[in-house]
Amino acid sequence: MKLTILGCYGPYPPAGGCCSGYLLRKEGYSLLIDCGNGVLSRLQEHMSYYYLNAVILSHLHADHVSDIMIMRYGLEMAYERGLRSEPLPLYAPAEPGPEFERLPYKNAYDVIPLGTDQELQIGPFNIQTRLGVHSIPSLAYRIQSSSETMVYSGDTEYHNSLAEFAADADLFLCESSFQDADMQRNLPNHLSAAQAAEVASEARVKRLLLTHRHPARDPEILLTEAKKHFPGADLAREGKTYSVLV
Fold this sequence. Notes:
The chain has a single domain (2-243), classed as Ribonuclease Z/Hydroxyacylglutathione hydrolase-like (Metallo-beta-lactamase, Chain A). Helix content is 22%, strand content 28%. It contains eight helices and 14 strands.
């Protein structure tokens, strides 16, 4: 598996940055994980969007889905021009209902609802889902092939089953919205970088990439706080491609 970081910020990007979006490729199959603000433009630096095989969304907040509402126009035209022969499969949590109902658009997407503790096969990827702790339903994804495993946290607070879900992953892509100082204010819905690292350590993952970083927080502080608990932590860096198995 090859993972390209298209965007790594939330809930909004800094100048020149993008919200959450990750391109996972294996054996010629291209899976887009989340599609926030700016991701469609960044994706086209790596491939034509109409060659995507599928999209999977962690949850339906705008910083994870906003470019879905834009990509549909290009997909509609690609379909009409013969560049695509069928709608793009789009997997997403079914709640909140009004947001899920906004996803279908003409012939752009084949929208498929997802729930927690579900297992499905998307191309070469076996994917399991797990519900996080967030203001709306947000799914974590454990994505496996025959020889490698990547886990993506989605947006979530700390919960007891996250380390079990991420156990022994080759790559753990985990949200890290907060610094230690933020946690003293009991801010909800997200992890700190230190908590992400604690989960990585408990789960015995091989590598940790910190993503969904708040643009107002110093990334080097986040990384320093994470390394206290997981020395191999690193920042997910926009535009960089990582091999899941090293």
